[in-house]
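Chain A, query sequence.
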Amino acid sequence: MNVLISRRGLGRWLAGMLLARQAGVEVPVPVVEELPLVEAVPITVAESSDPVARAFLEALIEEGSVAIYYHGGSTPGAWRLVRPESVYRLSPGGRIYVRGNCELRGGQRTFRLERARMG
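Chain A, predicted structure.
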């Protein structure tokens, strides 16, 4: 049986398992199979017709930053200045993601480009 679990679900399961063990209840550990790794498919600037993706790809080449309004995350609709480190898709024709430094959060973040609008 293949079961996918979120990080939050995994955390809850681990916390429950630890509490049960502290109470003296023996909890069996399930067998977990390794999931196959999905290789990211690179995209080129010429391949993208999306102006946001093109802006991130150009900023990546020029080592610059992009100002966006991001409609996701902990502060939806917030203005962010992002210095991209990578632009990728997880599958051919799939969603485009950007990994980079976000000045608003002061650290590395991953952004789904369909949630971003140019500032």
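The chain has two helices and five strands. The mean pLDDT is 81.
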